[in-house]
Amino acid sequence: MKLLPDNDSTPSGSATRAHSGSGDQRLSKTVSDLMRTPPIVISTSGSLVDAATRMRENEVGSVIVVAPEATETLDPIDKVAPSIAGIITERDLVRATSSGVNPATEAVSDWMTLDPHTVDQESEVIEAWRDLASHSYRHIPVVDAAGGLTGVVSMRDLFRVSALRPVEGQFADVPKGMEGVVAAETHTGTVNGELGFYQYRQYDAVELSRTRSFEEVAALMIDAELPSRDALSRFVADLNTARASVGEIKAASEETLRLGLHPDYSLSEDGVTPTSKLSEANQMARLRTAASKLGEAFLMKPTFDSSPVQRRRDCIRMISSLPAIAASNWRMSQGLDPVEPRDDLGFVANYAWMLIGSELPPAQAQALEKYMISTMDHGLNASTFTVRVVTSTGADLGAIVSAGIGALSGPLHGGAPSRVLEMLREIGDPDNAYRYIKKKIEDGERIMGFGHRIYKTLDPRSELMKEVALELGGSLVELAVEVESTVVQLLDELKPGRDLYTNVEFYSSVVMNLCGIPNPMLTPTFALSRCVGWSAHSLEQASDNRIIRPASRYIGPAALQPL
Q1: At what angle do helices 362-374 and 214-223 cross, to 10 degrees?
Q2: Where are the alpha helices (DSSP H) in 269-307?
Q3: CA-to-CA distance for 283 and 286, rounded, in angstroms?
């Protein structure tokens, strides 16, 4: 079944977009000026294949599900508008097919969203946009005063018009943190926080983590399709060839250490000698510097001046070289020599080899690979948005990735997975969990590794990492499971109705610890995997660029009188 990306351009099929008399979107006032009419519909008995076919033929990203007896193509003048049973979108189709069902026999009624949110056709565009932004829906049925279906409008349609309002002197207020605001169009991936689902391209990201190699998924992100065997061999060869030489890696590591010499380190003729441990923040600062140095060493031109082939080459160089620099930075900060990379190891196993200095056992290597695949991308998060903003200025990839690392280093974004391990060590024994967590909750303190801005249910990455942790086993895993159970129990007792679930940091910190990743390298390891997603978004932004320049509302004192 071939699925199309969401397409909100005027379709060539039966559905058309209504416009105001002038044909100028800036003059549109109500939803009826923007909606597609008649809408594309399907009966509740239709199959997933039927739904996909209608989307493809009419170039739309959703179809409205109606009762079987309703007419399946509507003329709003001659036919009575049917009631709405549900809506099914391309994301639903991806979710269904990734679960292994037969799309030819599976009914849309089993996968549709029941009783979808609707918008009145006479609603003001700006009011409809404000209402729907909080729901994070992409396609919304439009109804008349009687509740009958008259059309479909997308969030993209509404955002385009609301985004034009500032030009006319009216600002579209958005929630703090821009929550629910569509700030980019992407084919790279998306997150559904309500369903607890995220995807890379058209594939379930968790299933990719379970079944594919890091190199395969990286190729999917960079080149937009899962590679054939021959294409994968070429991609791996590109990675190995593009990697910086051992001499370049060592020189860059020495320079990053010297540029930001930590007070707890001494400098002698023999190099940098550690006198105490560096923190995650220190290592992220060095990784940020390393990304910038790679941009300089490889003479990466501004993306504005680069061809698509050059931009892809720069991404491959960054993805392949940054792990070697990160590993070398760590080892040299500990007074150890860098370890030369090995072409006979996979990407993730090779990173662990360069970092730890020994080859991981198969179980640990597979666990670390699943983690690094599962964290490659995750919607338009803070660091990815940062990457797109910097790309939109035409900057070079060294500047772009160093900006992404800077955003990821913040405790509220990439967090500090080591803080989860610190909490577990403070608890020490499962018998201490109840007393420790209860005090944290009563004191209003944050419980590390719990809660997420997007997910309103279980974080699928955390579920995957828990599964991986249980496979590895051990006392640390047993403690983590007990802490998770205790948090859920105590919240139910002390704060009924407040659901709080583990996020990706909770079990991933346990997994990385069991794989031998040093605590200060937990967030840098996260950054190395996310560099793939950043690269994909940078390529996408550069391919159809417009500088990202939102407006702000001045709320300071009125202008002073002239001097």
Answers
A1: 20
A2: 280-297
A3: 5
**Does residue 540 carry a catalytic annotation?**
no
- Dist CA 95 CA 110 (whole Å): 12
**Is residue 42 within a helix (H) or strand (E), and if so which, with residue range?**
strand 41-43
Please count the structural domains in the chain.
1
Question: 554 in a domain, yes or no?
Answer: no
**8 A C-beta contact, residue 532 and residue 221:** yes
Compute CA 520 distance to the chain's CA centroid, rounded to the nearest angstrom. 23
Rg (CA), the chain: 26
Q: In what order do the strands lie in the sheet with 119-120?
A: 16-17, 36-37, 149-154, 139-143, 119-120
Residues 6+ apart with CB under 8 A from 248: 297
For 366, residues 6+ apart whose C-beta sits below 8 A from its C-beta are none
Name the region of 271 (left: φ>0; alpha: ψ -120 to 50; beta: rest): left
Domain that holds residue 159: 16-182
Question: From the candidates 139, 378, 452, 537, which is the catalytic residue?
Answer: 452
Both tokens of residue 436? 């420790």
User: Which of 1-10, 39-48, 155-164 shows the highest mean pLDDT?
Assistant: 39-48
User: pLDDT by residue (tens digit) across 191-201?
Assistant: 887 778 899 99
Place of tokens 């009924």: 496
Residues 55, 463: Cα–Cα separation, whole Å:
32
CATH number at residue 115: 3.10.580.10
Secondary structure E strands in 1-95: 16-17, 36-37, 41-43, 62-66, 86-89
Cβ(97)–Cβ(48) below 8 Å: yes
The pLDDT tens digits for 466-522 are 999 999 999 999 999 999 988 888 877 777 766 677 888 889 999 999 999 999 999
Give the contacts of 75 (CB within 8 A, at least 6 positions apart): 38
209, 367 in Cβ contact below 8 A? no
Distance of CA 202 to the CA centre of its chain: 14
CB 337 within 8 A of CB 329: no
For residue 203, the SS3 value is: strand
* 459 Cβ contact list (under 8 Å, min separation 6): 196, 452, 501, 502, 503, 504
Contact 169, 20 (CB under 8 A): no
Q: Do the domain assignments include residue 22? A: yes
Angle at 15 between CA 14 and CA 18, to 5 degrees: 135
- In the residue annotation, 505 being an active-site residue is answered as yes
pTM here? 0.69
Q: Specify if 488 maps to a domain.
A: no
Query: Which of 106, 248, 505, 540 is the catalytic position?
Result: 505
DSSP reduced 3-state for 480: helix
Question: Could you tell me if residue 31 is inside a domain?
Answer: yes
Paired residues of 63 in beta bridges = 88
